[in-house]
Specification:
The complex is a heterodimer of chains A (258) and B (408).
Chain A lengths: L9 E10 L6 E11 L4 E5 L6 H8 L7 E6 L2 E2 L5 H10 L1 E4 L11 H11 L4 H14 L15 H13 L5 E5 L7 H16 L3 E5 L11 E6 L2 E7 L4 H21 L2
Parallel strand pairs in A: 3-8, 3-9, 6-7, 7-8
Antiparallel strand pairs in A: 1-2, 1-4, 4-5, 9-10
Helix pairs in contact in A: 3-4, 3-5, 5-6
Chain B lengths: L1 H15 L1 H39 L3 E6 L3 E2 L5 E3 L13 H9 L3 E15 L4 E10 L3 H5 L3 E4 L10 E4 L1 H8 L8 E4 L2 E9 L17 E5 H7 L8 E6 L5 H16 L4 E5 H44 L1 H9 L4 H35 L10 H27 L3 H6 L3
Parallel strand pairs in B: 5-10, 7-9
Antiparallel strand pairs in B: 1-11, 1-12, 2-3, 4-5, 4-8, 4-11, 6-9, 7-10, 8-9
Helix pairs in contact in B: 1-10, 2-8, 2-10, 2-11, 8-10, 8-11, 10-11
Chain lengths: 258, 408
Amino acid sequence: MVVVMNSPVIEITQLSKLFGYGDATNVALDAVSLAINKGEFVAIMGPSGSGKTTLMNILGLLDSPTHGHYALDGTPVADLSHRRRARIRRTKIGFVFQSFNLLHRLNVLDNVSLPLMYHGQNKLSRAHAASRLLKTFGLQEREYYMPHQLSGGQLQRVAIARALVNRPSIILADEPTGNLDTKSSEIIMNELKEIHKRGNTIIMVTHNPSLTVYADRVIQMVDGRIDSDTAVKKPKKSKDSKKPLGGKRSKKSRGKDA
Amino acid sequence: MMWLADIRIAIASLKATKARTLLTVLGIVIGVAAVTLVLALGEGAKQAIGRQVTQFGGDVVTVRPGKLAKDQSGRTLNYDLLANFSASTLSEQDSKIVNSTPGVSSSAPIMALRGTISDGKTSTDSSQIIATSPGLPDVLAQSMKTGEFLNDDIDRNTVVLGDTLANELLGTDQTIGQKVSIRGENYTVIGILNHSDLPLALNGLYDINRAAFVTLDAGKAMNQGIAQVQTINFRIANGSNPKEVTDTVSKRLKEAHKIDDVAVIGSDEALKITDSLFATLTKYTAAIAGISLLVGGIGVMNIMLVAVTERTREIGIRKAVGATHAQVLRQFLTESITMSLAGGVLGIVLAYVMALVVSFQLAFSPVLTWEIVGWSLGVSVGVGVVFGIFPALRAAKKDPIDALRQPV
């Protein structure tokens, strides 16, 4: 297991998020402290309403905490301008959503290259980068398809490609397989595993306990607090035994899954 | 590069809702066409009058009732062109004073009336009848097509017709000696004027080609024996100083009237007055036409607000992948400007077509200058910005989390 132990990429201390006012106040996050190191694959689990998604949104700079401190790559984000936050979203963070969140009026290629557009790249270099990435996901021949012409598994792979196109160091996946069947889920999880191997930090929210085998750290959340935080010891055997199921099969099934 | 991408996105988004985009653009088309046409009409009228004044040269001077308002440097401030004609203070006697002033080569009073002219078969309603003196053709530099103009010794019941009027009444047959009835009384046609290319030559008020010219005596007979002279036009003799002659005429008339109630206006001064009059008129008419553009702009704003609401989720996604406030703002602003600019271009084309149609009906043609085209395009871009900025700001300020929560 190669985990680089240097300063954490994500460090939150006493982070709280409240919704509503007065008597109707609802605590989504209750003084959560957490440090995530570079290259970790963290699975966040917990029942609905335990604050997983809120935590993800705050980590992804889509939302701001009510109280507490959040440092990304050692930099506090509280005082960053909208512009800087947007810049960090498109350079350091790749988001994968449960509902894919692709733009239905753009084709696959344009969807994947969208973050590059906001980065100011020209159309040709955007298309090249997006096309190269789609090829590694086995979706090259689907480049000019519209989202509604693809299956759920394919859509999520497109969404992952979009999350990766800017070469972000952190991937935030909010129930990436929540809308997918078992087979597609497995393909998606293997993609995430591959990305993780290349050195990306992955934080994934999931309901499905069986998916935690892919992670090397599992955080359990209950009522806006971290209930348990355990490193997953993966015996070499089980990892090997997964290979024929995961790695190889995924390559075969990529072409024909629908 | 970003600009091109914005325009591409804008066009794709607008195409996705074709029908309402077209209707919104139509609102702008009508507004821009109205404003452009009014400006073109104003420009056309200005040029037509300017052309006439230049062709007259600086030699023709007009005496008008009413006092001219001037500022300290002697510039004409304004002149109420029409108000004083109904109660003119000019008389037949004034015409004689003008005519006898040294340096005046010819002069003609203009007494304008209206009435039915008929040759027994055809008749025209409310035609322009101008009672004047024999000096008129010389003052206007107007030649005869056939026959002769009025002279001092001629019978009261004689008439000279403008070219168009003659054609309408009598056709192209023998016209001299024909009898026509004017206000129920018979007149003999003794001459037809040549067709004038400067149809509004008489102070820009009367169309020579459609007028009937009678003697001042005949005019008086039509007006209870009173010569109600609206203007006196005179031409300055070659070699005389126009300023001196004009001042002399002015002085003599004031002496005769005892009070300062007439204005003597050279043609360049007259041009300035008509110019400013038309500029003001055009400005206000364009402003009224601009109201339809305002309505079109409100249409743009309305549809952009709908678009922003409908596409909240799209905005959320774009922000989640790293679009800044400014980039989202620009995207929606480009969309509204694209609509209003397209409407502007089509509106100018429509105005051009309408100008062509109108030019067949009017004595002058509307003129569509590059300046007007530039203004119209500028205004339509302005409409896109003004009415697009609020919806675009609303889009830019959307919170990404709330935006992503919107159901598809």
